[in-house]
Amino acid sequence: MKLKIFSDQNYLPKKTLPETLKYVAILTPFWGKLPDDPKHFKTEIFDKFIDQSRYFLEMTSLEKADLAIFPAYWHLSNFDEVMIQFIGRAKELDKPVAIFSHGDWNCDQNLENTIIFSTAFFQSKRKSHEFAIPEWTSDFISQKFMSQIPIREKQAKPKVGFCGYAPPLGLPFGLKKLKAFLRLAGDIVGLTEKFYSKTGYTNRVIALSNLSKSSLIETNFITRQHFSFASEALQESSWEPEKMAEKLRLEYVQNIIDCDYVVCCSGYENYSMRLYETLSCGRIPVFINTDCVLPYDFTINWKKYCVWVDESEISSIAEKIVDFHNSLSAQEFVELQYQCRRLWEEWLSPEGFFRNLFRHLTIV
Known about the structure:
This protein has 364 residues and is α/β, with parallel strands linked by helices. The chain has two domains: 3-137 and 349-362, no CATH class; 140-348, Rossmann fold (3-Layer(aba) Sandwich), CATH 3.40.50. Helices cover 34% and strands 14% of the residues. It contains 13 helices and eleven strands. Helix 10 (273-280) links the parallel strand 9 (261-264) and strand 10. The chain starts with a strand and ends in a 9-residue tail after the last helix.
């Protein structure tokens, strides 16, 4: 199906926005490719989408459109008169409006006639017109492995990986580690629940700690002193920042490739970018569900592709991984790696997600 969409550059914010976020991703085939963001390791993300979009998207007038696209990201434009005007214009012709955002969606306005897409929602607070969108990621398999997944054969003991930031783990002794430890302790005893977005690494730390103590699995954990995108991570080195960024990214990707399973848990916001990167590499996520909303959850059986661990089950995360691993034959284990890669290609890559975007219109 070819989805007919409408948008209008006159509704872009007047303020200066980062060139990489000048307008929403679905409009890049029609308004031009946005610059790559090498600082955040995002390159060539939309190239295939731009090339293939003509088969499933068509820009048309509002009168002929199936869906109107508000051109700016909500979290950058804020809810203002311009958005109200755009929604009103579409409503006059009974056209639904797609609004894209990033991070935890927290707009309390009553946005009638809209479909909201964001990387993060809370399932318990979700409205019927709110849907998750993936965090876009580079295609490491195409860029680094000539489009061929390095397949792992099943071993008796599952190998679980993680490379990233999980304070206080990996921090040197000092004030920063002490603050992270106190924050963790506050989370564990429930003192900081209302500040969830500021203390989101707690579940990640508990999961990694439990796995490190388990004899049931083999771990391959690299805990960083900084969030990988942070300027501190690039500056505290004798390497040039660009080369240091590439080094960190290669280590990150290799950690995924070298493992059977990868721990995927939300950080500051209630979504995991690592989930999509793991699937794109043909590896099996250990997904820690922190009241998350996932893309196409109305048609994808996510538990088929992940070791699904609810937040209340983190204490038994090792046992859940082993049970999942033992339930697969050697052939099924290999096939699941291909299935994870196909899931990302067909549903979670930019071209896959937007090719299926029309499905949301049938359920709102």
